[in-house]
Specification:
With 395 residues, this protein is an alpha/beta fold. It has two domains: 132 residues, 3-Layer(aba) Sandwich (Rossmann fold), CATH 3.40.50.720; 183 residues, 2-Layer Sandwich (Dihydrodipicolinate Reductase, domain 2). An eight-stranded mixed beta sheet has the order 13-12-11-7-10-9-8-14. Strands 3-2-1-4-5-6 form a six-stranded parallel beta sheet, with helices on both faces. α6 links the parallel β4 and β5. The protein is globular, with a radius of gyration of 29 Å. The N terminus is likely disordered.
């Protein structure tokens, strides 16, 4: 009975609607006629939205699976819209057990690689795994040939710093990126440009919140690197570029990022009995501010690692030290010192997220280009020449 009542009600409603339409003025009827197709249009829009194709998951390969490879592996696994499909390292011992070492926490130390296929041959990996992007974390001499090969194949590359052993070699990577097919892109991982305590400093400098910079010093001290399995390639300056190119370039690049390309550099260095540079200090001509940086591989194992900066503004001092209870403290001219609230996460997480967003076609802030990465290697080239000659070197 209830069903019949509902049907009768609907029938009456329909009859009443028809009668109203007949008796309505023509203008009202026309308005009603115009309004009716709107429902169909809405349905079309809805179906078009529903028909949107979900973007394909981008395939990631980690090339080089030492300390930095594991660092990248851990962060790429967290990127939405990306899947790590391949791990590649000629030294297969890297996959058998978690690695110890590195001067920072955060590397993925597990041996659970999910669905990722393990390769010991780069060419085979490119052909079979068909990655959309590779994270290249191999020794520096391999950066140029593998980056160029990947870019020519239409594969994007996030290459660890330093870009290459010298600026001339960097040019090959810059050219390959400019000519890469299928929208393939190149990023060099200068992680400090994304590290919260350094991005905070850049904001202070750019906004001149506390006035202009009077002086700035950046320091990076470490025991000689010895992590990884197999021969310690860091000790061979022809492969690692030594303390200047492997460690100190972090701060040289930061000077470039914060103050622009220096006009000149004046450097001094210390070399051990094997002729390996173990310490370098540099004064950068960036204008009015007195800016310096130093890097050291001569610290004891018990000391470990420390990075710091002290930047004096006209109306404040900002002090950062990785080993302090409060990593960053600001001392304003007026008021009490304070610990600024920083963005969560480390530089690796933020740089990988930035590149992932860029590859997805999202709008990102301009932070790093291949040309800027090459410029930072140019600075190191000049510092090495200055240290050897004892003279100022123009850039």
């Amino acid at each position: 009975m209830a069903k019949e009542t509902i049907k009768e009600s609907k029938a009456k409603t329909a009859t009443t609607a028809k009668a109203s339409a007949k008796s309505a003025p023509k203008s009202t009827a026309k308005a009603a006629a115009k309004a009716m197709p709107a429902k169909k249009t809405a349905k079309k829009k809805k179906s078009a939205t529903a028909a949107k194709v979900k973007p394909a998951v981008k395939r990631v390969a980690i090339v080089g699976f030492g300390f930095m490879g594991r660092m990248h592996f851990g962060h790429w696994k967290k990127q939405r819209g990306f899947e790590v499909v391949a791990l590649c390292d000629k030294n297969t011992a890297q996959f058998t057990e978690g690695i110890e070492g590195g001067n920072l926490a955060g590397a993925d130390n597990s041996t659970d690689y999910g669905k990722a296929v393990i390769y010991d041959d780069f060419d085979k990996m490119l052909a079979e795994a068909k990655p959309d992007v590779i994270a290249l974390t191999l020794p520096t001499p391999l950066h140029v040939p593998l980056t160029v090969q990947a870019l020519k194949a239409g594969v994007s590359v996030l290459c660890e710093k330093p870009m290459a052993l010298n600026a001339k070699l960097c040019n090959e990577m810059v050219a390959a990126a400019a000519e890469a097919p299928d929208g393939a892109q190149l990023m060099v991982g200068h992680c400090l440009r994304f590290w919260p305590c350094y991005t905070y400093l850049k904001k202070l400098i750019d906004t001149q919140k506390y006035g202009s910079v009077v002086a700035a010093s950046f320091k990076r001290y470490s025991a000689m690197p010895g992590w990884g399995k197999g021969a310690n390639w860091f000790m061979d300056e022809s492969k690692s570029g030594g303390v200047a190119l492997d460690l100190h370039i972090h701060d040289a690049d930061m000077v470039n990022f914060l103050f622009g390309m220096p006009k000149s550099v004046t450097s001094s260095a210390n070399y051990n009995s094997d002729g390996l540079m173990t310490f370098i200090t540099t004064l950068y001509d960036v204008g009015d501010a007195v800016v310096s940086a130093e890097g050291c591989w001569a610290m004891t194992q018990s000391f470990g690692f420390e990075a710091s900066y002290m930047v004096t503004f006209e109306n404040a001092v900002a002090v950062m030290n990785t080993n302090a209870a409060d990593a960053l403290v600001v001392y304003p001219a007026k008021g009490k010192k304070f610990v600024p609230k920083l963005k969560a996460g480390d530089g690796y997480a933020h740089e990988i997220k930035w590149f992932a967003d860029k590859l997805k076609g999202l709008e990102v802030e301009p932070v790093i280009t291949p040309e800027q990465s090459r410029d930072s290697v140019r600075i190191i080239d000049a510092e090495k020449r200055s240290a050897k000659s004892g003279r100022k070197v123009a850039l």
